[in-house]
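thread: overnight batch results

M.L. [08:02]
morning all. the overnight job finished for the chain we discussed friday. pasting input first so we're all looking at the same thing
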Amino acid sequence: MGTLTAALMIPSKLKPDSITENKPSYFLHRARRRTKKNQSIVPVARLFGPAIFEASKLKVLFLGVDEKKHPGKLPRTYTLTHSDITSKLTLAISQTINNSQLQGWYNRLQRDEVVAQWKKIKGKMSLHVHCHISGGHFLLDLFARLRYYIFCKELPVVLKAFVHGDEDLFNNYPELEDALVWVYFHSNIPEYNKVECWGPLKESSSPPGGPTGTHKMENEDKLDTPRPCSEDCSCCFPQVSLIPWPQNLPTQVDGNQQNLVSGASLHDG
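M.L. [08:03]
and the structure it wrote out:
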């Protein structure tokens, strides 16, 4: 998700500095060419180039989980973060979100983490993925539209990292790749504060081929966000969400929008 860093660094219109103003025209021309190459082309290439998963750049941490245990019986979550220094991804697979990955001023500034959890709802397994688009500070709000685009572009890589990093689980339970993926975009801007169904995991973890650049299902507006039974039961697990978030998310129900209420931020306390 390092492209989110580039989004915060793209210059608008660079002014010539005082050093070059009094230099001969040939020096000014060379200086301008060097500035364009270093500060404009590279960030744009990172932002809009193809999203490719590289297994060699993925570090996986297993924290108190067992690949022999089905996620419908033992809680299983994914916490994925990116380092702009090493360009590597770190994936923690644990029973609860690995909050230690999300601490520090850099992570609070960037908010480029992706967290997910497996849920069994009314007997059906599904993967619920959460991304923070905006809210928290003005830079995130300023680039909300671009952040939404980048998350959509990078999510197939994220999902591929989940499958690759947790390969023993999928080898033991290959039917999990048929589970639907629900993506929750959290934002203080209504346009980007929403839930999308991206279809089966085995399809949504492949590069998108449609004109929209995402894996949103064609009949998505006819699907209801899965919600567990209101009373204790054996067909839903876990009973409590392992990923608390501060916003209310609208969900489509028979063409009308309702709110899916959630709890506190991952970065709180």
